[in-house]
C-alpha cells in the first residue's frame, strides 16, 4: 500500500457513515419513535439523505392538520345534522285570540258605529243648545224653580232663603250639566276611535238618561222649547245605545281591540 492510499484510508476512517466530516452526527433528527412494525421506508436510503418522512436540513416539513383527522363521516366543523337548521326562524305566532288561526281581515268602520256615535253626538249638541237657552232665560227659570221649591202652607222659611236655595239649585244643575256634556263628548271621541270601554261608558250614561225619561214627562219646565229638546235627546240616546250594541258594531270593536293589542291601532 502506497503513501497516498494510506492517507485516503485514514480520511475514510475519520468520516462516519453518512458523509459528515469530523465524526459529527447527521443534521436531521432520528426517525420518529412509535413507528408501527412492518413499516418500511420506500427504497434503499442513500448516503447523505434524511430518513423517510423528514425534510432535508434547511427546509420546512410538509404542513400537517393541527386538529387531527376527523373520523370518517364526522363533520369537522360541528354543523348540525341534515334537516336541522341552527339559524331557523321561530314558528309564526298563532292568530289573534278569538279570531282562529289567522289574523282578522281589515274592517272599515261599519254604518252602525257611525250612526250610533252620531246619535250620541247629536244628543250632546241638543244638550248644549238647551243649556244656552236656559242661560238666556235665567229669570224665568229662577221663578219656576222658586215656585217648585215653595210648598203649600209654607215650611217656616223666609222668602230670601227660598230664593237663595232656588238659585243655588239652578246653578248647580247647569254646572253639572256642562261637566257631563264635556265628559260625554270625550267618551264619544274615544268610542269613535274604537275604544270598547268608551262604548260601555256611553251605554251606562244612555241608560241613566232613559231611566230619567219618565221623570221628565211628569215635570215639564217653564220653557217648552227646552222640554222638546229633552225628548229628542232621549230618542237619540236610545238609538245610539241600540246601534252600538248590534253585531257589526261588536265585530268592529273587537277588531279594533286586536289592533290596539298588537300595536297597529
Automatic annotation (TrEMBL):
* Compositionally biased residues, Polar residues: 72-83
- Show the segment(s) annotated as Disordered: 1-103
User: Pro residues: which segments have biased composition?
Assistant: 23-32, 44-64
Membrane spanning segments where?
A: 115-136, 170-190, 197-217, 223-246
Entry superkingdom: Bacteria
Q: Which UniProt keywords apply?
A: Membrane, Transmembrane, Transmembrane helix
Q: Where is the composition biased (Low complexity)?
A: 1-15, 33-43
Record-given protein name: Uncharacterized protein
Give the species: Blastococcus saxobsidens
